Amino acid sequence: MILAWSLFIVYLLGTSYLGYLGYKKTRGFSSFAIGNGDLSPFVVGVTLAASTASAATFIINPGFVYVDGLSAWINMVLGTFTGIMFMLVVLSFKFRRIGEKMKALTVPDWIGKHYNSKEFSLYFAFINLLSFAFVVLLVGGISIVMQKLLDVNNVTALIITLVFVTGYVFFGGTYAHVYTNMFQGLLMIIVTIIILWSGIELLMKSSDPGFFQQIYNEDPNLLVWINKKGALFNDFFSIYVTGFFIGAAVVSQPHILTKALYVKSDQAVKKYLWIFGVILFLFLLLTSVGFFAHVSVPADQFTDVITGKFRQDLVMIVYLAHNFPDWVFTLISIVLLAAAMSTLDGLLVSISTITANDMILNILDKFTKKVRTEEQKMKIAFNASHIILVVIAILVFWVNLNPPKLLGIYGQVGVYGMVLAALPPLLIGILFKKAPIKIVWTASIIAMFIHFVLYLYGNELFPDSTFTFVNPAVTATLAILTSVLPTVVLVWILNIKAKTNE
After folding, report:
1. SS3 for 180?
2. Residue range(s) defining the domain that contains residue 111
3. What are residue 310's DSSP bridge partners?
4. Is 45 contained in some domain?
5. What is the C-alpha R_g of the chain?
6. Is residue 19 situated within a structural domain?
7. Which end of the chain is more exposed for a tag (fewer CB within 10 A), N or C?
C-alpha cells in the first residue's frame, strides 16, 4: 500500500506540473478550447489515442470479451478500429480546413457557422450534455481501480479523482489536456505492451490442454465467429455491422474530432492519423485480456464479495492482480488510472467549452439586447467554462455515489445518442457544399429518437425481432442505417438535381 500511494503521488505531482505548463500557455478562451495550433502531429496523435482509448478499453471492455468471447473481440477490435479510421480520414482534413476558415472553437460552433444557424449550434450544445453519461462511466471506472489499488472507499476515490482532474483542466484547458495526455499516453503504451506480453506467454506456454482448448472446454461458444448465446454480441449484425458503424460514429465526439483544429495543415493531420492508428490498435488489443482471464484466473475470483454476483467490470483488475507481482500490479494500476483520466480531461474540456461558447453565449445573444464585442464574449465564455467544470464535478460525484449497473452500457447509451445527433450535420457538411438545414436537422433528431426508443422499448415494440436491443451499439447502428445514410443519399440526389438545373 505504501508503494501504491508513493507511485500515485508521483503521478499526481508529474501530471500537476504538466497542468501548470498548460496554464502558462493558456491566454484566453480560444487557447483554452483548442490551443493555438502550434502542437506537433506526434503529440496530437498520442493525445488522440490516449483520449479515444480510456477506461472503456483498459478496464471495462475486457469484461465483454470474457462474457461473449471472439464475437465481442471482433466487434470491439477489428470493427471499431476500421470504423474509427475510416471516418477520421473522411472528416478530419476538411473539418480542419473549414474550421480554420470559420475560426470554429467547438464541434457545435463548427456546425452552427457552417449552416449559418446559431439555433443549430445551440441545439447541439444541449445535445452535447449527453456526454455527461460518459463522464460518469470514466469516473466510475477510475473509482473501481482506485478503491482496490489505494484501499479507499468510493467517496474518497471520487473526491480525489474529481478534484485532481477538474483542477488541472480548470487552470490549463486544452494545453493541460494535451500535455498530460502525452505523458499518460506514453505510460499507457508501455503498460499495454507488458499486459499483452503476459498473454503471449500464456499462448506460448506448453500445457495440456493448450490455451484455446482450455477456453473451448469452458465454453465452446467463446471461440465461434458468431456466439448465438452471447449476452450482447450474438448475431452477424451485432458483431460485424455494429462494430464498424459505431467506430465511425464515435468520431463525432467533440474531444476526438476537434483534434484536427490543433494543427495548421493537412500534412500534419495525415501524420497524426498514422501515429494515432498504430497506437489505437495496440490499445484495442487489450480487450484480449478477456481471453487471458479465462485461462489464468478461476471464475469465482470475479464475484463481488458483497452481492455474491459476477462482475464483468472486475475482469481486468483481477487478471492483473492474479498474474503480476504486487509491485508490477501497482505500477500497471496507476497507468490504468492515467488511461481513464486521459479521456476524462478531454471530455471536461469539450463539455465546458461547448456549454460556455455554444449554449451560454447563444442564449445571451438570443434573449438579451446588449451588444457585446468579441472580446467581451470570449471573457464571458472563459469564466463560464470554469464554473461549468465545477458544476459537472459535483453532479458526477452525486451520480457515482450509487453508480448505475453495467457502467459500460450506461456510458454508451448517452454517448451514442450524442454522436448520432452530430453525425448527419458533420458528415453532410463535409461531403456536400449545400444541404437544406431542415433536412439535416430532422435527420439528427430522428437518429437520436430511434436509438433511445429502440434501446428502451425495442423488445416491447418488436417482440419477434432478432435484434439485441439491450446492446446500445445495435440500436445506434439501426438509427444510422434508417436515418443518417438515407439522408446522405437524399442530399446527394438534391445536389445532383441542383447541378443539372444550373
Report:
1. helix
2. 39-406
3. 303
4. yes
5. 22
6. no
7. C
